[in-house]
Fold:
Amino acid sequence: MYANFFKRVIDLLLSLIALIVLSPVILVLIILGAVKMRGNPFFTQQRPGKGEKIFKLIKFRTMTNQKDKDGKLLPDDVRLTKYGKVLRSTSLDELPELLNIIKGDMAIVGPRPQLVRDMVFMTEQERIRHTVRPGLTGLAQVSGRNNMSWEKKFEYDLEYIQRITFFGDIKIIFNTVFKVFKRDGIATDGMETAEDLGDYLLRVGKVERPDYDKKQEEAKELMRI
Structure:
């Protein structure tokens, strides 16, 4: 009953309250972001949601749109600003996702929405994570945030799905607050931003280049639909 009905009602009510209470902070970040990023302070990106339905996740922008002489975006670690690092380390960049929760794209607690180009590399078992709404936070995030292997993340995601309870969600929320204040596990060791699943599988030899390229094209096609 909780997972199928009350969870959505609670998510909606808490997100509305949080949006109202945090509106002064959000307004300040909108103004700061517009100045620091020299334009639009928001960043939207297509992500797979429940039932693998693609939705637009909204966050505060942490990287510039700097491009090289050929018009291609520079690497993430070059475009990530000091301001952006502060937003990420405090998770303030995630605040606009309250709108995604209110819309019904996301939940407060659930498997984090990965990139479409990550989804196409997941196994059938791993894609079971998409049978529920993705979350602002989740079991994997309180168990290590970004500093854990992809395989371990999916293990935690599937473990969460098997038993969704009110008290379990409350525990994850409180652990998330603790992690944010501690600024623990923000990034993968040695990386400014998390490595894509496909890049990881290619690097460790679990996927061959032709299959890698094919799945990247599949992801692009899904985002065009």
About this structure: The first helix runs from residue 2 to 21.
